[in-house]
Amino acid sequence: SLQVAALVSEQLGAFSSVQLGALTTGAVVGFEPEDVAALGSRQVVGFGTGQLRVLSSDQVGALRSDAFVALSDKQLGALGAEAVKGLAAVQLGAMRSNQVVGLTTSQISGLGSDQVGALSNAALRGLSTVQLRALGSDQVAGFVSDQLRALSSVQVAGLSTRAVAGLGSDQVGALGSAQTLGLVSAQLREMGSDQIAALGESAVRGLSASALGGLGSLQVAALVSEQLGAFSSVQLGALTTGAVVGFEPEDVAALGSR
User: What is the tens place of the pLDDT at every residue in 18-41?
Assistant: First the structure.
């Protein structure tokens, strides 16, 4: 490690991927952030999982974007959960969907809300339901409208109830029918009145009958006339009797023949 520490950035930048992969983990630990920043895409592909596992958050954060996106999903998954916390917004924003599949649930659960908000839409589309379930309420608070609209119904269904409960009214308002179609009754049951009221008419139309069965009277009472007017006969019929009790006269008046 002392000998590697003596190498200057220009020398490390001249290494081939094979030479980089031949270094011991002890030597890699001796890299300064500026040394890591000197590595390009053709070199980092030589990193072994053992080498990547010992990188610190400062070292990982120093990787150039072009070098970071050159890492395979297997290499990405080898990074320590603490090291991933060092990823910068520019690195996360450059991630590809075939890269993000390598993230472990431990890595994902350690990301900050600002890091989650920096993920590209393409990267988000690559997340599995298992990965999405690892996100907590503090993390989903980092999602911006475009990201939420990029999620599929299957991905939305994969979010934990605590994550759904953590969405802000603005975030809920950004959801379309393509996303709310994935909401299940357990998720809807955890949503607050302000969240329910924030759902757009298109989002309301996307709610499945089985999911609507999870709404309570207080949640139904939060629905405005325009939302109820968007309900189909099947959706209306799926509400529990306890939920229907929450209707105000003006809500009933909003219901049409269909």
Answer: 999 999 898 889 888 988 999 999
Asked whether residue 2 carries a pLDDT value surpassing 70, the answer given is no
Above 80 in pLDDT, residue 144?
Answer: yes
Decide if pLDDT at 73 tops 60. yes
Candidates 32, 24, 42, 44; CA nearest to 8 is 32
Structure tokens at 194: 């302000």
* Cβ density class 120-144: b for 16+ within 10 Å, e for less: bebbbebbeeebbbbbbeebbbbbb
3-state secondary structure 212-224: HCCCCHHHHHHCC
Q: Residues 81-106: what's their mean pLDDT?
A: 94
**Amino acid at position 50, single letter:** G
What tokens appear for 190 in the block?
């955890």
Q: Quick one: the chain helix, strand, coil %, rounded to 5?
A: 60, 0, 40
For residue 9, what pLDDT is reported?
60
232: number of Cβ within 10 Å: 13
Kindly report the pTM of this predicted structure: 0.83
Q: CA distances (Å), 180 to each of 143, 172, 209, in order?
A: 16, 9, 12
Decide if pLDDT at 15 tops 90. no
| Sign of the torsion angle spanned by Cα atoms 13, 17, 23, 25 | positive
| Helical (H) or strand (E) element with 114 | helix 113-118
| DSSP 8-state class, residue 102 | T
Contact indicator for 198, 173 with CB cutoff of 8 Å: yes
Phi, psi angles (nearest 5°) of residue 89: -60, -40
Contacts for 108 with CB less than 8 Å, ≥ 6 apart? 131, 134, 135
